[in-house]
Amino acid sequence: MTDYETLRRPIMISCTGRSGSTMFYRLLAQHKDLGWLSTYNERFPSQHWLAMFSRLYAKRPFRKFRDNYYFPKPFSPYTFWEQLLPNIARHDRPLTADDVPDEAIEPVRRTIHRILRYQGKQRFLMKVTGWGRMAYFNRIFPDMQFIFLRRDPLAVIESWVRVGWLNVTSSVDSDDWEWGPVPEGYRALWEELGGGPLLSAAVKTQLDIDDICANMRQFPGRCFEIHYEDLIANPVESMRKVLDYCNLEWDARFEEVVKSKVLHNYTRRWTETISESDASRVQAFFERAAAMQHESSAPTASGPDTENVGQSSRSLASR
Fold first, then answer.
1. Contact 218, 134 (CB under 8 A)
2. 206: exposed, middle or buried (Cβ count in 10 Å: 0-12, 13-18, 19+)
3. Is 239 exposed, middle or buried (0-12, 13-18, 19+ CB in 10 A)?
4. Backbone angles phi, psi at 265, to 5 degrees
5. CA–CA distance, 132 with 306 (Å, rounded to integer)
6. Is 314 a residue whose pLDDT tops 60?
7. N or C, which terminus of the chain has less Cβ within 10 Å?
C-alpha cells in the first residue's frame, strides 16, 4: 500500500482573501479526526516531526495559550508548499492541474502522510485563498473534497483596504497590477464606475470568485458552499452541515468547541470605513459582474451554472 492510499478524502477550504477563513479553518481543525499544517510548517518547513506539537491545539488545558505567537496553530504555510510545489504562490494567473510537476506528486503525498502520522490524525485539512487551486490539488489528491467559504464582497473589500498587506488596490491598467489579465468587461466596469483602489480590490475579488467557481464546476458533488454570515449567525447549525458534507462525526466534544468559540460579527464593519457612495459603486460592480457571469455560464451540456455548483449551506432564494 502506498502512502497516499492511507490518505482518504482530504478536505480543502477555498475562498477569496479576507473571507474569515482563518477563523473557520481553526474551528474545523479542532475536529478529532483532522490533521493540518501549522505555523511551525511555515517557520521550519523541513522539520515535519514538529507536527506532533499540533496535537496540543485542541486540548482543553492549552486553549488559553493558542493565541501565543509561539504556539502551533492551523496555517497556510506557503514556505512549506513552495519547497514541494515551486510557483504555487504565483499571482499572475490561476493554477491548473497541468501546473503540478509530475515528480512532485508522490513526495507531497508522502510528506502529508508523514505529518498526519506525527499528529495522530486520519484526514488532512488545508486552506488556500485567492486563486481556487482545486483542480491543482485534485491532481495530487484525487478524492479531495472542497469547501467554498463565501463572504459579502463589501466586507471583503473593506478588510483588504484596512489591512493593506497584499497589493490588491493598484490600478488595473497600471504596471503595479499583479493579478494577470483583466477581462475587458471588468475593465470597462472599473472605468465606468470611477476606478480607484476600492474597485481594484473588487476586480481582484471577482477574479478569485470566478476562478473558484470555474474550479467547482469540474467537481460536481464534491463541493460545498458555506456563507460566512450564516456561520456567524448560526455556528452550530452551519458546522453540523459542514461535518455532514465531510462525513465527519458530530460529537459532544466538537459541539462544545463550537459553542465555546467567540465569533465576532464583523459583517457590517464596512459601514464604518466605506462611504455610502463608494459602497454603491462597489455593489454595482459586483451586481453587473455577476450578470456578465450568468450570461456567459448559462447551463449547457458541458457543465452546470456557476451558482448551482455542488451543495450549499444557503438556498439561492435567500441570497
1. yes
2. buried
3. buried
4. -90, 100
5. 14
6. no
7. N
Domain CATH code at residue 99: 3.40.50.300
In this predicted structure, the answer to whether residue 259 has a pLDDT above a threshold of 90 is yes
Straight-line distance from the first to the last Cα atom of the chain, in angstroms, rounded to the nearest whole number: 46
Nearest to 208 by CA among 165, 154, 163, 150: 150
pLDDT confidence of residue 5: 57
Record the cell numbers describing residue 292, joined without a space. 456578465
Q: Distance between CA 133 and CA 114 in Å, rounded?
A: 23
Instruction: Tell me the backbone φ, ψ of residue 232, rounded to 5 degrees.
Output: -65, -40
Angle (CA) 245 250 253, round 5°: 145
Q: With contact defined as beta carbons under 8 Å apart, do 77 and 42 qualify? A: yes
Number of domains within the chain: 1
Q: Domain limits at 182?
A: 3-318
d(CA 112, CA 106): 10
Q: What is the pLDDT of residues 112-155, one digit of tens each?
A: 999 999 999 989 999 999 999 999 999 999 999 999 999 999 99
